[in-house]
Amino acid sequence: MSGPSIVIVDYGLGNLFSVERALRKVGASNIKLSFENSDIERAGKLVVPGVGAFGDGMRNLRERGIVSALQAYARSGRPVLGVCLGMQLIMSQSEEFGLHEGLDLIPGKVRRLDSNRDERLKIPHIGWNSLHGSHGPAKGDGLWQGTLLEGIDEGSSMYFIHSYVVVPDDPDVPIAVTKYGNDTYCSVFRRDNITGAQFHPELSGEDGLHIYHNFVHGN
What we know:
Elements: E1 6-9, H1 16-25, E2 31-34, H2 37-42, E3 45-48, H3 54-63, H4 67-75, E4 80-83, H5 85-89, E5 91-94, E6 100-101, E7 106-112, E8 125-130, E9 132-133, E10 157-162, E11 164-168, E12 174-180, E13 183-191, E14 194-197, H6 205-217
Parallel strand pairs: 1-2, 1-3, 3-4, 4-14, 5-7
Antiparallel strand pairs: 5-6, 7-11, 8-10, 9-12, 12-13, 13-14
């Protein structure tokens, strides 16, 4: 039996309805907010949103009994998009308020943003900041081609709210980086069917909607 084309994972920490509104605005129709294993298993595409602390997020996923379903879904090859905390939960572990194990879909860790930062800048990082190409495989004339950032100009600004950032083990996984003070961090990653964005596309104007459009209408 077919399921919803897009499932937004509801684990109690996230701006689910603003994500849903943005997806509908770019043409998605068959959307479901759910924490049910059956919905996750049958989804065509999966969005893991999130706002808050890593430990709380993983605890909520475990309490809802959906950790294994998310891991199995990612292994199926269908598209997964992690947004803000959702991006971080995709990693192996986080150093936020102690050491916490993540979904381990992409090897790497989550660290505090204030590593080597300009002391004049505040944490959390809240506001608009720009995306730049990383040293990964998407570079030169083909910058971001074939990714969710296709059609986004380098230097475009997105809206961020976060204190922690992801550090993938594989240096080719980041496809965009953002600079905050002296700290340059991974703001978008991609490995196979899994993409993560540290910013909030639903709060990032037309460029953010373009990213969701790529997710909805891409393969």
